[in-house]
TrEMBL record:
Gene3D superfamilies (alphabetical): 3.30.70.360, Zn peptidases (3.40.630.10)
Cofactor(s) needed: Mn(2+); Zn(2+)
PANTHER family for the chain: ALLANTOATE DEIMINASE-RELATED
Protein name per its UniProtKB record: N-carbamoyl-L-amino-acid hydrolase
Protein residues bound to Zn(2+) 1: H76, D87, H178
Pfam families documented for this protein: Peptidase_M20
Annotated Zn(2+) 2 binding sites: D87, E119, H372
């Protein structure tokens, strides 16, 4: 079975026209934006043209279903607020091409999915988290984005015309192809990564409430400055984490909202995101304790109020041994000596789907290791190598 690499690349480039940023190949296609909805309508048409039955569920996860029991392939087609053209899109379009090729060859049955809000406008991998039961829909509906829009409000226009949640019992397993989003494969000039396990994540919003006041007349010692609290907190946790972390542990304050955010006003409130990731759930818990204690100390010292948003998270997961073996065998045939087994430091829908089905993932290189940025890219040869590995693995699994 040989997938059509020209058709695959053509569809991949067509998908990036939805929300094209006008900077390189970058896209702006956050979950439920007009660009995301338009891209999903186009994808649904492509699924139908491939002979699949389209079903969109109440949160906007888009499935193209084969008849009977099938392997599920896919990823997500929403992007970060500033994203690349391949993060998620690659796995969805590769799935579409494999499903199409399989139908043309008469077998095996392959279904396709594009999960919604993988990039966490509202939570962490929200669409697949709801589908898999990782979080209840009633809880997800209360989550807000950074502008205060709720998940319930964002999905309402889609939910009106949606079908039911797709029954996972019809799938035999899930395989997600993705870009690596880090430098390992590119630096080693390798073409394929077969994922061993995916890190765990914790994500929480914190708010310091101080006293909004005049920036010229308020003496420094009388201030209760919410930004100074964020700054002190950041310095303190960087020090305290050193006793707990491993070289692979990461943490990020990626979003800060100051109120009222003006040069001549001592900020009265600061709400910020705190995210941390590691392969060891105990370490994630120790970091959480440091975060909570440190934030409280900073608040008490500066006379500020402190509140915590809901703690969102996903546990570390290992990939299914049999699916992984199939990907490794296929990788060795397509790219002999130019592949490796490796962990994933990025989160993926596969983490949630692992609650329901055997899952596995394969990576292709990211040039210079760049992702979640407009200049994310991958060599065409590597994109096609990844597609070939996926096709071979799907064929081999069918023969087992
Ligand atoms: O942040 C992540 O790891 C994923 O791309 N959402
Ligand atoms: Mn992704
Ligand atoms: Mn991403
Ligand atoms: Mn290369």
């Amino acid at each position: 079975m040989t997938p059509n690499s020209e058709r695959f690349l053509s569809d991949l480039h067509q998908l990036r026209t939805f929300g094209a940023a006008g900077v390189g190949k970058g896209v702006i296609r956050p979950a439920y934006s007009d660009a995301d909805i338009a891209a999903r309508a186009w994808l649904a048409d492509r699924m139908r043209a491939a002979g699949l039955t389209v079903q969109q569920d109440p949160v906007g996860n888009l499935f193209g279903l084969a008849e009977g029991r099938s392997l599920l392939l896919g990823s997500h087609s929403d992007s970060q607020p500033e994203g690349g053209w391949l993060d998620g899109a690659l796995g969805v379009i590769a799935a579409l091409e494999i499903a199409r090729t399989c139908r043309e060859n008469g077998r095996p049955a392959v279904s396709v999915v594009s999960f919604q809000d993988e990039e966490g406008r509202f939570g962490v991998t929200t669409g697949s988290a709801v589908w898999s039961g990782q979080i209840d829909l009633s809880l997800a509906d209360t989550l807000t984005d950074h502008d205060g829009v709720t998940f319930a409000e964002a999905r309402a226009p889609l939910a009106a015309g949606a079908g039911d949640f797709v029954d996972p019992a019809q799938f035999t397993g899930f395989v997600e192809m993705h870009i690596e989003q880090g430098p390992a494969l590119d630096v080693a000039d390798e073409q394929i990564g077969v994922v061993t396990d995916i890190v765990g994540i914790r994500d929480m919003r914190l708010t310091f409430d101080g006293r909004q006041n005049h920036a010229g007349t308020t003496p420094m010692q009388l201030r209760r400055d919410a930004f100074q609290a964020v700054s002190a907190f950041n310095t303190a946790i960087n020090g305290r984490f050193q006793h707990v972390v491993s070289p692979r542990t990461v943490w990020t304050i990626g979003h800060v909202a100051l109120h009222p955010n003006a040069s001549s006003i001592v900020p009265g409130r600061a709400t910020f995101s705190m995210q941390w990731r590691d392969g060891d759930a105990d370490r994630l818990a120790r970091m959480e304790a440091i975060i909570r204690t440190t934030a409280q100390e900073v608040a008490d010292t500066g006379g500020l109020g402190l509140s915590f948003g809901p703690l969102l998270g996903l546990e570390p997961v290992a990939m299914d041994a049999a699916l992984r073996t199939a990907l490794e065998a296929a990788a060795e045939r397509v790219a002999p000596g130019r592949w490796r087994a490796m962990p994933s430091g990025a989160l993926h829908d596969a983490t949630n789907v692992a609650r329901l089905l055997p899952v596995a993932m394969l990576f292709v290189p990211s040039i210079k290791g760049i992702s979640h940025a407009f200049d994310e890219d991958t060599d065409e040869d590597d994109l096609v190598a990844g597609l070939s590995v996926l096709a071979r693995a799907v064929t081999d699994l069918d023969q087992d």
